[in-house]
Amino acid sequence: MTRRKVLKIVTHIVLSLTALAYIIPFYIVFITAFKANNAVATATPFIWFPVGDQLGVQGFIDVFKTYTIFSTGKSMVATGFKNTLIIIVPVIVGGMFSSSLAAYAFAKMKFRLKKAMFTTLMFSMMLPGIILLIPSYFVYDNLALTNTFFPLIVPPMFGSALGVFFLRQYYTGIPDELLEAAKMDGLGHFGIYFRIVLPLSIPALIAQGLLGLVATYNDYLNPLIYLLDEEKYTLQIALSMFASGNTNSLHTVMAGSIIAMLPMLIIYFLLQKHFVNGLTMSGMKG
Q1: What is the mean pLDDT of each run of 10 residues along the chain (286 residues)?
Q2: Is residue 48 domain-resident?
Q3: What CATH number is associated with residue 119?
Q4: CA separation (Å) from 82 to 20, 71, 85?
Q5: If you write DSSP's letter for every residue of the chain in order, what string do you get?
Q6: How many CB atoms lie within 10 A of CB 179?
Q7: Residue 4 falls inside a structural domain
Q8: CA distances from 130 to 56, 137, 223 (A)
Q9: What is the pTM of this model?
Q10: Residue 111 domain-assigned?
Q11: Residue 129 is part of which domain span?
Q12: How many domains does the chain fold into?
């Protein structure tokens, strides 16, 4: 056996073991969610392949029935999902619009202090967000904006430094001759952006939009800091509270995890081609 074949076999073994390390936890979550209550007892050996009466969907039913808002009686998980959507839609739409406009300006426009402003923007990426959390809380608290969605929606709508950086890399790959021809036809910067740049950058916008979507959807700390009422909890807080109160009902907790993961998995599988293309092209162009 040649050295190349040995290396290939070892590589496949390592990759297979790595894949199993990621797949097995997801399998445990999935199969536990579909177990009946009598098959989830932690005192017995774990049942890897439940059959017959060991299977059930009661966990998914209990997710929406066993944890409700005290004042309204509504499902906490369903309410959390609704609140998460209320936050996500303006954050993603507004954030991508702001980031793409700034990226276009840095990539294709000429103005004073352009390099200094872009350098400052990139430097802001080095600052951990946790540093700004306490002063931001004091500001919003003094403005009586805590326990509202305002701190979670409005600031992200102005875009992110990372989004500006990747979109700028993408926009620099658009030929300047194409934009100059548009200017000769009478289009201004906004016309060029909406009619030429925006349609050409759909893959990059989808890629950055998905990254922002996942970050906002999975955000736990910021909603925990700013939101106080149960009626305003996001999905991640609702699931955390739900899990802490159902430690003796693992199939219900796992069912809640499946419900939380499902929207992101569906969106990714539908848009994965655009996501990969957008990230690849953003990284290659510059």
Answers
A1: 83 93 89 79 70 80 75 80 93 92 90 89 83 89 92 91 88 86 85 88 86 90 90 88 70 84 86 69 49
A2: no
A3: 1.10.3720.10
A4: 34, 17, 5
A5: --HHHHHHHHHHHHHHHHHHHHHHHHHHHHHHHTB-GGG--TTSPP-SS--GGGB-SHHHHHHHHSSB-TTT--BHHHHHHHHHHHHHHHHHHHHHHHHHHHHHHHHH---TTHHHHHHHHHHHTTS-GGGGHHHHHHHHHHTT-TTSSHHHHTGGGG--HHHHHHHHHHHTTS-HHHHHHHHHTT--HHHHIIIIIHHHTHHHHHHHHHHHHHHHHT--HHHHHH--SGGG--HHHHHHHHHHT-TT-HHHHHHHHHHHHHHHHHHHHHHHHHHHHHHHHHHH--
A6: 19
A7: no
A8: 42, 11, 14
A9: 0.82
A10: yes
A11: 63-284
A12: 1
Burial of 150 (0-12, 13-18, 19+ CB in 10 A): middle
Q: Please indicate, yes or no, if residue 3 is contained in any of the structural domains.
A: no
Which pair of structure tokens corresponds to residue 130?
Answer: 């946790």
Distances (CA, A) of 111 to 162, 186, 197: 21, 21, 19
Total count of residues recorded for the chain: 286
Of 69, 87, 25, nearest to 242 by C-alpha is 69
Nearest to 264 by CA among 212, 203, 192: 212
